[in-house]
Amino acid sequence: MAKRAALDAPKSATPTARPASERIVDVARDLFCRDGIHATGIDRILSKAGASKMTLYTRFGSKDALVREVLLREGADWRADFLGNIAAAGPDPMRRLLQVVPALSAWFHSGRFYGCSFMNASAEHAKGDAALRQMAAEHHRHLLDFFTTLATEAGLAEPSTLARQILLTIDGTIAALMVAGDETILGIAARNLRSIIAQAGTDVT
Asked: Which distant-in-sequence residues (6+ apart) come within 8 Å of 168 by Cβ?
């Protein structure tokens, strides 16, 4: 999901090589996001990472634990990239709010758009998986806090509600882009975002 270095380094060990456990995580992040969790077997991850099963089970204990580690890092890195892109719009909170869709567009055109890792993982696992639900909720809480703060600073009405509307716009746009792969969806999302903000009390035309 987030920008990461290519995983084409030789498998042979070098003095500066990343630890085997980190190579496992790097490869798992790439394969889980690109191909799916269930479609990616442990043997494939270990072969590509040049690591042993002993390292995997000593460090992580199970594939499920590796999945959780991947999601933690994916979420943190995606938020850093996405929210950093929004912050780059400048100090004005309104300009930052309007940067949401351009930030989504930058991700969509980055060559590493595989959708939301939490949505994807949830779709592949039992709907009552408590660990995944908790991680997804924590990810959303970070985003809601960020957008609630921006909406408050912009002087918009009901900032917490507006933050939820923005998050629904983000999630819906990501899902639509995954299904259709049509970038015109971004234009619709931009119009929807402006309408939501206008209804909160500010003319953004």
From this structure: none
